[in-house]
Structure formats: structure tokens, C-alpha cells
Amino acid sequence: MESKHDTRGFAETIGQYLRLLEQGHTEGIVALFTDDAQIYSPFLGWMAPAPFFTKLREASGQSRIKPIDILVSTSGNPRAIGYFTYDWGLKDGTHVSFDCCDVFDFSDDGRIRELTIVYDTHPIRVQVGDKYQ
Questions:
Q1: What are phi and psi of 129, to 5 degrees?
Q2: Contact 78, 105 (CB under 8 A)
Q3: pLDDT digits (tens, 9 = 90+) for 112-121
Q4: HEC states along the chain?
Q5: Would 24 be classed as within a structural domain?
Q6: Residue 30 has pLDDT above 50, yes or no
Q7: pTM for the whole thing?
Q8: Residue 59, domain member (yes or no)
Q9: Residue 58 lies in a domain
Q10: Looking at residue 16, which CATH number applies to its domain?
Q11: Which residues pair with 104 in a beta bridge?
């Protein structure tokens, strides 16, 4: 099924998101989202973008992101997935590396209206504990 959405725009937005995430550029990341956007995090549950990325920045130190792929919905939905390895550096000097899939749902204007973060939290909890506390 052919999509009525500009999937190249989705890929560009996800690429920009990953670059800004690696830089810890909270304001730039939040600008990619709609005003009423929501994010689901395995550790933090549902949150609005600004408080979520502020919490992430406060917990994080130097991090690296290695993009693996960007996958686009084949059913015509305004959705794409950013698949990447997150080498997450924390403020206390701890590092953990894990693969992550961020599921992006886009609004009609191409901004992100919902982000669902998917990764296995067990190895991270075992290795570093809950760093959002």
C-alpha cells in the first residue's frame, strides 16, 4: 500500500532527533514535537516532551548514538521507527550500551505527536539501577 505521507520527511526528522538526542539539545528536540505530544518511556511512563527530555538531560553525561536503520510503515500510517544503539553515559560516570527502537507517530504537519520508546530494561536496571531517581 502506498503511503499518502512524506516518509522521507519522517526519516529526516528521525535523523535530526537522533543527532539532537546525542547532543543533549533539549530545546531542539522538543521543537520537533507537537504541543500536545506524549512520550512513553519504559522507566518513566507517559510524559510530555519537555519534562521527559529535561529529566533525561539531568541524568545523562556524554552519550553516543549509532543509527542502525529507519523503518517506515507500509500500511499507510504516519509512523516510522528509529532503530539505534544508545551508548548512554550517565552523570555519575556509568555507561551502558543497548539497542533501542523509538516508534514515532507523526502529525499531519510532519511533527512528532507520539513517541514510544522500546528497549529491554532488565540489563540496564541490573547494570546501572534507576538513574532517574
A1: 75, -165
A2: yes
A3: 999 999 987 7
A4: CCCCCCHHHHHHHHHHHHHHHHHCCHHHHHCCEEEEEEEEECCCEEECHHHHHHHHHHHECCCEEEEEEEEECCCCCCEEEEEEEEEEEECCCCEEEEEEEEEEEECCCCCEEEEEEECCHHHHHHHHCCCCC
A5: yes
A6: yes
A7: 0.86
A8: yes
A9: yes
A10: 3.10.450.50
A11: 80, 115
Map grid coordinates 507517559 to a residue: 46
- What is the β-pairing status of strands 64-72 and 45-47? unpaired
Single-letter amino acid, residue 58: E
Task: State the total domains in the chain.
Answer: 1
User: What is the rounded distance in angstroms from the CA atom of residue 56 to the CA atom of residue 119?
Assistant: 16
Q: Predicted confidence band at 88 (pLDDT cuts at 50, 70, 90)?
A: confident
At 74, list the grid cell: 507500509
Q: Which structural domain, as residue segments, surrounds residue 21?
A: 7-128
Is residue 13 in a domain?
Answer: yes
Task: Determine whether 82 is exposed, middle or buried from the number of CB atoms within 10 Å of its CB (0-12, 13-18, 19+).
Answer: buried
